[in-house]
Specification:
The structure holds two protein chains of two kinds. Chain A folds into two domains: 39 residues; 107 residues, no CATH class. Chain A is built from seven helices and no strands. The chains are: A mainly alpha, B alpha+beta. At the A-B interface, helix 5 and helix 6 of A face helix 3 of B.
């Protein structure tokens, strides 16, 4: 219809009916394809295909081995979260937790070394972490921009 | 990340409500209205200190990843209910 009106206004005569049918079919097919893609994205495989799922999967991949279990736990919970915005909030909040995970998980190891100095409790936080744990936590933090890049521009 | 003891206590109390039941992380987030960014560091610390036991729930729908389950250990239950002595026993509501 739009093409018809545009053709009449610009050229002063109606367009070829075959061209109208063809262009309408192309646009309808494209719209159906987008709808199908969007609709199938709300199912069980959403965590693997949508942006929150990719963000979380990339963040888990960037975690060191001993923190990865917790990252996988958060990733698995994301599959239960419904709604695009809720999933986005869950993923962002989980990534925030993952950024602190090396320091949190490192507490136990560092606590063994720092026994008698108060462990990780009472706000001693990173002070009791060993140099290696600090380096690992910093490395994870420095990988964060790469994680974002891989998430939003995969491949 | 600032630590808020009342949130840790809330998580322990929520887990202690049904001490033998394994709970999901997202379920706890919804119950306590906590974001995962707050909940999971708490769970990690509780597990590291031996107050929380974890296991993977492999009984999930096909194509879905196994989910992590949580419940308090004996020490965790004792901490959540400091009045109790010895091995944990669920006694139900106490008569006044």
């Amino acid at each position: 219809m739009v093409l018809w009106v545009v053709a009449v206004v610009i050229y002063g005569h109606p367009p070829n009916p075959v061209l109208v049918v063809y262009s309408t079919a192309v646009w309808v097919s494209a719209a159906l394809l987008v709808l199908h893609r969007w609709w199938s994205g709300t199912g069980a495989g959403l965590s693997a295909t949508d942006a929150p799922g990719r963000l979380l999967a990339a963040a888990v991949a960037a975690l060191p081995q001993r923190g990865r279990e917790w990252g996988m736990a958060m990733n698995a919970e994301l599959t239960e979260v419904r709604g695009r915005s809720a999933r986005g909030r869950f993923a962002l909040s989980s990534v925030r937790a993952m950024l602190w995970l090396p320091a949190v998980v490192g507490c136990r190891l560092a606590g063994a070394r720092a026994r008698g100095r108060g462990g990780c409790g009472g706000g001693t936080g990173r002070r009791v972490l060993g140099r290696r744990d600090d380096a690992r936590a910093d490395r994870i933090h420095s990988q964060f921009p790469q994680v974002l890049r891989r998430t939003w521009w995969p491949g | 990340m600032p630590r808020r003891p009342e949130q840790t206590v809330a998580v322990m109390v929520a887990l202690a409500e049904q001490p033998t039941v394994w709970r999901y992380g997202y379920e706890l987030c919804q119950q306590l209205d906590l974001k995962p960014g707050t909940m999971y560091p708490i769970l990690v610390r509780l597990a590291d200190r031996g107050l929380l036991e974890t296991r993977w729930d492999t009984d999930v729908a096909a194509g879905r990843p196994p989910r992590h389950l949580y419940r308090l250990t004996g020490s965790g239950r004792a901490l959540a209910h400091p009045g109790r002595r010895g091995p944990y026993r669920h006694e139900g509501p106490r008569a006044l």
